[in-house]
Amino acid sequence: MAQTLPRSEPSFSSRSCRASANVGMRRLASLARGALPRRAATAARGGDRGHRGGSARWTIPGRSSSSSSIVAEFTSGGSPPSSNGGGAAGHGQHRNAARASGVDPRSASFASRAAAEAPSRRRTAPAAIEELGPPADAAAVAAAPPPPPPGPRQNAKPTAIVGETLTGEVKRITFHNPDNHYTVARLAVCKDDVAALPIGATAVTKGGRGAKYQKRKTKKDAGGAGGAKEAVITITGYIPNVAEGLNLRLTGDWRDDEKWGTQFVLNASPEELAPPTDEPAMLRYLSGGALPGCGKVTAERLVTHFGARTFEVLDSPDATRELTRCPGVGAKTAEKLKKNWDVTRGRRGATAFLEEHGVYPALAQRVAAKYGANTEEEVKKDPFEALYMLRGATFHRADALAARLGKSADDPARLAAAMLQVLNVNASSEGHVYLHWREMRDGVARLLGPKQAAGLQKGALVAAADELLAKKRINRIVAPAKGADEAASASDDEHDASWARYGVFAAVLYDAEAHVAKDIARRLKMQKRAPDVPRVRRWLKAAAEREGWRLLSPAQEAFLDLALREPISVLTGGPGTGKTFAVHIAVRLWRAMGRKVLMCAPTGRAAQRLAEIASAGRSMSSPVQSSTIHRLLEQRAGKRGGAGEEDDDPSDALEFAWKGKFARCKASPLDADVVVVDESSMLDLPLCAALLDAVKPDAQVVFVGDADQLPSVGPGSVLRDVLQSRAVPAVQLSEVFRQAEQSGIIRAAHSMNAGRIPEVPTRRWDDATRTIVGPGPGGGGGSSSNANQSGPLSYQTETWEGADCVWVTVPEDGENAYEGALAALFDGALPALDGLNPTTDLQVLTPFRRGVASTSQLNVFLQERLNPPSDGRLETKAGEITFREGDRVLQQRNDYVKEVFNGDLGTVDAVNGDGSVRVVFGGAAAAAALVPAREVTYSRSELRDLLPAWALTVHKAQGSEYKAVVLCLAENHRPLLRRELVYTAASRAKEVLVILSPERALRTAVQTVGNNSRNTSLARRLSPHGRRAPSCPSEAAIAAAGEVKAKREAAAAAAAAGRPRTGDVDVA
Length: 1068
What we know:
Elements: E1 3-5, H1 14-32, E2 55-59, H2 65-68, E3 70-73, H3 89-100, H4 110-113, E4 128-131, H5 138-143, E5 164-176, E6 182-189, H6 191-194, E7 204-205, E8 213-214, H7 219-222, E9 232-238, E10 247-257, E11 261-266, E12 271-272, H8 279-290, H9 296-306, H10 310-315, H11 319-323, H12 331-356, H13 361-371, H14 375-381, H15 383-386, H16 395-404, H17 412-429, E13 434-436, H18 437-448, H19 450-454, H20 460-470, E14 474-478, H21 486-490, E15 502-506, H22 507-524, H23 533-547, H24 554-565, E16 568-573, H25 579-592, E17 597-601, H26 604-615, E18 625-628, H27 629-633, E19 674-677, H28 685-694, E20 700-705, H29 718-725, E21 730-733, H30 738-741, H31 744-753, E22 762-766, E23 771-773, E24 783-784, E25 795-796, E26 805-809, H32 817-826, E27 842-846, H33 855-866, E28 875-878, E29 881-884, E30 888-891, E31 905-911, E32 917-921, H34 923-928, E33 934-938, E34 946-948, E35 951-953, H35 954-957, E36 962-968, H36 979-986, E37 989-996, H37 999-1007, H38 1018-1022, H39 1034-1055
Parallel strand pairs: 1-3, 9-11, 16-20, 16-21, 17-18, 17-19, 19-20, 22-26, 26-37, 27-35, 27-36, 36-37
Antiparallel strand pairs: 2-3, 2-4, 5-6, 5-10, 6-9, 7-8, 10-11, 10-12, 13-15, 14-15, 22-23, 24-25, 28-29, 30-31, 30-34, 31-32, 32-33
Helix pairs in contact: 8-9, 12-13, 17-18, 17-20, 22-28, 24-25, 24-39, 31-36
Domain ATP-dependent RecD2 DNA helicase SH3: 858-921
Domain UvrD-like helicase C-terminal: 948-995
GO molecular function: 5'-3' DNA helicase activity; ATP binding; DNA binding; single-stranded DNA helicase activity
């Protein structure tokens, strides 16, 4: 009878292919002999594996086709399923066919469905492959009725966790993570289950690459014959309170690993069976860690004294008194043993209870760890309260648990949890620190759905808000009305009147904003320093003569005056205005005065640039310390999930927590006299609160950034609020220096920031000839005029060959035009790119991650073009993403164990046989920045932390600089096409900037002022501390700088004889 196998995952290297072939051929041979291991696909990990391609018949030599042919889904080069576990259409046909034949592949054990489905490992090399047509029952499958819709919320049932079941005793714990309970252990399988073990399950690896096995059992042993050695297998999964000697019932699936061999992978927390009854097993159980505080000596005393009654004594209410009768056990020891016994037993029962109600294992273990034996009682009483502020406990998970416990849809606790969810979602997605009451009310209505929202009683939301306010889960302040109809719409319901005037904060964000405002206000009141101005001027003059500096502009001198005097100050300005040079001089002045300087930035790339700024390419015996803010503050490694956990939720309230998150804080401040924060526009509110909390009260703080760039990803708008308040001494650098004015990149960036189409050489992509041709649309071949003019664009003739900033127009419907234009650029269409290595020097930027001209589309093309597959270049696959040796990758979240952080760029150095990847972060860039390169290894499950980086979103690139940048814009990017985005992208380029965009897309982006208005109150909190009179000579210097700038512009205008040019752009 034909057997159907799901498609195996493609191999990632020639070495791993050989190793997997050995495992696969042994398994195929065992299938041919009829030794079918029990196996069931697990719904907990997203269902059966998906696959692509047609069917093929695998024939094993020496066997008849009727007995040994195995029908397998076969494809060469197919991709594994996506992370959500969805399969392809072909697999869905087999799954429906199995259901139509009466076999449910989601719930039936392997023994009952062996005739319909058999296991498969990685693709092997069969002796013969015979192509088959589509399944014969395709018509029946197509006619099968759709599954019934899910029931109402109150009747929701947890998804059944299915898979093979084994029982046995834990013999040895190889690895256990106490934070998330991930465990690797050896299990002695009970005799009743030994016969069902697959061949190779009890093998052990002998090290080295590939699965090199040493058999521990013979075929006779596998059958469970008397006198056989016990069958010991490797198990992996999340096992809370694991201990040697535990008797467990496990549910999971078998998996072959190229390096570690065959493993039983759990898909649910194990069920602890009755404790052992014989004394040797009791001794192993108690001394193996099942009872914390009970070592081998104490365990021997208990078992020797109580014998088979040991567990009965521990379970009894008066166990403390009974235990003291044992020789060597005192009253304190007895009390501790009884307490630990009850806690561990309660946690295991609680975890089982939660998983029965659909809570995934890692979260169930956190809840059980918090409440212990009282978990079931607390969860039944109020599931929302029980799961509050636990990692991974989102509203939807708590709501699903409440529904399974029979809680009503209008439960006040549910409304309160919905309000917190709305606050967290808006903070993470929109950057709002608070919401107006009307926004809160509308957000809750959308979250609950129109039907449930309409059925709420009058005043229910107000009552929930009052309860949250009393518990200090939220806070509120009087907020300015957001629109003319705000008060009217909020007062439609008389019950809303008490909240209509307020903005509602999540407590953690309210505390962060209040702390930032209080700290800045305190620093503003500090006594200002009085530098020796004549001595500073002599030092500047001598350094300028010795090193060939140009003279500082008046505005730069004003910043130096602020930096030496003020406890807190701000430097802001666009590209080419001299921020980097001014900061470099300030750092050298501080160090010459004997002050210790620390420099930090929100991202790793920006921190590397800081090291370059401080050193200016000079060799320094004691270089200035520069790092990311997270690394500087020494964030404690949180109890985050391990591989495969479902903890990554950007709306998790824990993401905004800052108190107690870092080792550096008020109690253990940074050892620095001056702290410089670069790229401050990327600084979000919680991180700013943590940073200021760690800076010594008498230390200076300097924020440096460009307020016109994109705001922070996290909540808040710190730099803009500080500038808007006019409370903190600040200097704006607006003068573009003569050397920078010669750069078309600088002129283009300032033109776009002023709302004008940049005056750059323009050509177009021709789909017919598949080349970049000139002139651009509208005649001429030059730069576009002011975009604010009506009518078609006009162009002026300029030199394409000598330009460092160009614009290539593409058709609005040309999905493949971007790839073609990029290929033409790589082939030499733009002379400015000659001499640059596109693999290391060029970065493609785009607003979107999906769709036309997105990172997902462009990364595939760029990888094939710049790092194509080859025989000597190994690769592996994670979901839909291929990682190949030589690929450029980006870390997309902070990992405090590996010490790599969001935004760090690296290169794949090696792909190992077990699917792990070694990445080198830093490399040449790090060497230039005096930062050593670091090698970091990622397991296959950890590859979700990496993204391909041949093409990046503009948000991910903020804070970085590249020699060449290609900015791709399309019409379908319209939701993000705004001035701040293209200005930020243009300012990332140092030597060459290429814009690939339809005319209308670029015009839309330049003329659209982004809706970056965020609900914050930091500026209003700081406004009362604003200066009413000049506090230092910088005021006069800034005024003088304005006069000089005006005179220079007038002279330039006269020299140009009326020709329009890009002027200086003040920071808004």
